[in-house]
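User: I'm curious what two different proteins look like when written out as structure tokens. Can you demonstrate?

Assistant: Sure. I'll show them one after the other, since each token string lines up with its own sequence. Here's the first protein:
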Amino acid sequence: MIRKRVLARGEVQGVGFRYHARAQALHLGLVGYARNRPDGTVELELEGLEASVSRMLRWLETGPRYAVVTALEVSDVATTGESEFQITG
């Protein structure tokens, strides 16, 4: 199991980004969270099998239909053993 923190930049708020990301994460068997940040970015933490996290990162490069992702900042973080994927903020 691995966990990544992702900061998505671009037109990522107000386009259903967090909800689509949650659906994709659940489809891939991932846990973690997605939340809007005051600076207009979306922060996510993704935990699961390395292959599933990699697939999610590829999906995040484009995001949902109306999003315009201009950059992803990805860093490793410690696993938490969470059991669900939450949307906050």
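Here's a second, unrelated protein for contrast:
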Amino acid sequence: MTRGKQKIDAQRRNAEKNQKAKGSQIEARAVGLKVVCPICKVQLANEKQLTDHYGSKHPKEKPPSTSNA
């Protein structure tokens, strides 16, 4: 069993070792989302998701071409 300074040092080392990576998932998600729906401004990852989104959320509208999005 450790005491005093050894215990404090061991706790500090364990805390550093178990600490999660810096940065947030929100920032990483924002980098990955490139396509935006022009109607409702939802962000999507690619054109296929945009066409699926139009089919479910905006069925009366025609999805924009890939050069537009």
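A detail about the second structure: The first strand starts at residue 35 and ends at 36.
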